[in-house]
Request: fold
Amino acid sequence: MAVDRLANAASIYQQLHTRYGVRHWWPADTPFEVMLGAILTQNTAWTNVEKALANLKAADCIDPEAILACPLVELARRIRPSGYYNQKAARLKRIAAFVLQHGGIGRLRGQPLEELRPRLLALNGVGPETADSILLYALEKPVFVIDAYTRRIFSRLGALRGDERYETLRALFERSLPARDTALFNEYHALIVEHAKRHCKVKPLCAGCPLAADCAEARRVADEPRREPTGFDRLGR
Reply:
């Protein structure tokens, strides 16, 4: 896939930023809470993550030491709203141990990205999206996070096929933007999330979409012939 298919990536960022403003994402009080959220959000909605994090905060179990000290069964019970709670409890313990073994958040931030990313990916249960979310939002490293929202939006814009490998897309976005900048990558991903929630849903809401003029999917939807309602439609059947 040619890089120039994302030549308007910076323009799309500006359009989203104009519409939605600064998003202040990722919502967390500490970098370690970001790490917890990155794991808890796997295969679930953020509203469920918020419930799990609230349970951890209520139990004062929101730092690495407390996570490691908490019995696995108890930890799983507290994060039950996030789903897959037994697996995720073990993953939370692994990420807590990882932070402490490397001397804490401050020391992790001082490690080169090229060394830190493979170490995170070596942890059981930490895939590329989770690792990059931790790197970007908790450890302030310039990596572009690719998620299902990114694939959906840019596929509908006609810039992607939608089946590209994660690493291919990550490198593509990082090359297509004017700077490899943590703040830019942070804000761009947050805007993508917001846009997917408001307009680019599974069933798109193209009316009022700030990207509609550039969107192949919006044009397709607009060109679809309107079906005349049948008698059954009018009867509400």
